[in-house]
Every structure is written in C-alpha cells, then in structure tokens.
Design a protein that fits this description.
The protein is mainly α and about 150 residues long. The protein has seven helices and no strands.
Length: about 150
C-alpha cells in the first residue's frame, strides 16, 4: 500500500483522520482475507471470461465485501475507538465511492464503469459489517447486483 494515499485521502478527498486511515488499512487487509478464503478467485474467473461489465460488477462485489469486513474489524475493536471514529470512516467511504470520484474527475457518473461501488454502498456495507460483527453475514456475491 502506498502511504502517500493517506495524503490524497486527507487533502484531495477531504477525509482526514487516523480512523479514516485505519478504515483504508482494514479494507486492504480484508482483500488479503478474501484471497486466503478464495473469494478473490471468483473475480479472477469472471475477468478471464473477458466480459468487462461482468468483471466490473464482480469487482464491486469484492470491494463492498472488503468494506463490510473493515466494518466487522471496527466492531471487534470498539473499545479502542474514539468519538467520531466511525464518522471518519464513513466520510472516507463516501469520498472514495466511484460516483464521487467520477463526478470530481470526469464531471459525470458512468455506473457501468464502477469497480468499487457508490459512496452510499460503501458506507452502507461498512456499517452493515460494523452492526453485524459477523464475517458470514457479508456475502455480497449471493445477492442480486441491484440489491447491493
């Protein structure tokens, strides 16, 4: 992980704070967990078929599940959280949603090109993980894409 991303998160995306950074790290650790569990292989299988839209959608599912797992991690570390930490994570998730980034960089939003999910989805899946605290409740691959 490139540590300069935290400067970008704080300055460009207006999402400063130590827990905003912790959320990003937890999200990236979640990708490692997904790899260990074989979940990442699902996306790789879709990618090999060459269907760009299906690949993007599988990627969104993977990313939202990583947000969910970051929320699970936060739940299990509640005793270490400060007032406002969850809000920092949600602000970061909001600022790095595909729709927010596309709007800022392109001036328009193109949902078929999403690879990480909307701001609303990212915040919602983080909070689902935080509220549940259970890894097994975060299967983003079993539900219809439009229900994510």
């Amino acid at each position: 992980m490139d540590p300069t991303f935290f400067d970008t998160l704080s300055q460009q995306h207006q999402a400063p704070g130590d827990f905003a950074q912790a959320y990003v790290i937890a999200h990236e650790v979640a990708h490692h967990v997904q790899k260990l569990l074989g979940i990442s292989d699902i996306v790789e299988g879709v990618r090999r078929r060459g269907d760009k839209l299906a690949t993007n959608r599988a990627s969104v599912r993977l990313e939202l599940q990583a947000d969910y797992l970051a929320g699970v991690w936060a739940r299990h570390n509640q005793k270490y959280l400060d007032r406002g930490d969850i809000e920092e994570a949600l602000r970061a998730a909001n600022q790095i949603g595909d729709d927010a980034i596309q709007s800022r960089t392109q001036g328009r939003v193109t949902p078929h090109a999403f690879t990480h999910g909307t701001s609303e989805q990212r915040m919602r899946w983080f909070m689902r993980g935080y509220d549940s605290g259970r890894i097994e409740d975060g299967d983003t691959f079993e539900m219809p894409y439009d229900a994510l």
